[in-house]
């Protein structure tokens, strides 16, 4: 049995930032357990070179495009902005220069109207949001991040919590920790993990009622040699009531490939009935209707359907509207789990639930509470 002071379950943004904060506070006695083969969680980027959504881009590849969250807003979210600056990452503003296209009825030409600039500015990262995951991973001890480790049971046992997990080979492992930081979505936690004894009923219900951000969503990305739409005075932004994409944006990387990306308007339970290649061809057809024939032949294109990801979505998420919800309680107010277990996923942020900045906020709040309770 491996023993540690703090166990973090999940190596997405909140889990890695939690580990980063522990390092900053001189607390090296921790371990991060991640079910996926690599850190990142709901942050994932793909490259033109990969040519398959199953191939994750490498850290050296700056032509990466976001399959998950894309933006942050420094003017409203100074904490994540400061972290990005501290890690030496390069940021840039979302391209919004030019006209907006609106597709209202099937068969009708798209309407062209003046675009608008978001205030505050939406910012992106060179290399995609995966560059933030890479930088945080480099800032902590790599041997403390155990990937391919799926947690099954959390058992409270006197002064410690026993964490029962399986590795990718099916072998069982037990980790004993004084406390646990749960960096997975609350709904996913209560539906996929067994807590012994059970969580307080009210807390469990709150967590189960909290939608997992991004879980019902899917994104389509098309890569091109040049941003040809800009030559025609278009911003690359579009809205459609026809579909299959409901909202489209310019996803080009400065100095790299041009790209468009869109969110599917087709609900998750309906997407399941359509073959992936049919979805892909429908997206190409839509981009051609909006931006012209050149858009029908991308150099590469990708679909990431988060509703099909068992480490993100549950059956409850398939019919969820995909909106941000109020943060649930992050910890038990009393009982055996009090002071031993904190939920630190983005959904648990009082300020920015569901956003990238929410993962930073939730992890910071938990580490601060932990340090106040046990200042060793």
Record the SSE blueprint.
Layout: E1 2-9, H1 13-24, E2 30-33, E3 45-47, E4 64-66, H2 78-86, E5 91-93, E6 99-103, E7 111-114, E8 123-125, H3 130-139, E9 145-146, E10 149-157, E11 160-167, E12 172-182, H4 186-192, E13 194-196, H5 201-208, E14 218-224, H6 228-231, E15 234-240, E16 245-250, E17 258-264, H7 268-271, H8 276-291, E18 300-305, E19 341-343, H9 356-373
Helix pairs in contact: 1-3, 1-9, 4-5
CATH architecture of the largest domain: Alpha-Beta Complex
Number of strands: 19
Radius of gyration: 21 Å
- Mean pLDDT, all residues: 92
What amount of the residues lies in strands?
25-35%
Largest sheet: 8 strands, mixed
Task: Walk me through this protein's architecture.
This protein is α/β, with parallel strands linked by helices. The longest helix is centred in the last third of the chain and has 18 residues, at 356-373. 23% of the residues lie in helices and 27% in strands. The protein is built from 9 helices and 19 strands. It folds into 2 domains: 1-43 and 130-210 and 326-376, FAD/NAD(P)-binding domain, CATH 3.50.50; 47-128 and 216-311, Alpha-Beta Complex (Polyamine Oxidase, Chain A, domain 2), CATH 3.90.660.10. The strands form 4 sheets. Strands 1, 2, 9, 10, 11, 12, 13 and 19 form an 8-stranded mixed sheet that branches. Strands 7-6-15-16-17-14-18 form a 7-stranded mixed sheet. The two termini are 23 Å apart. Helix 1 packs parallel to helix 3 and helix 4 (186-192) packs across helix 5.
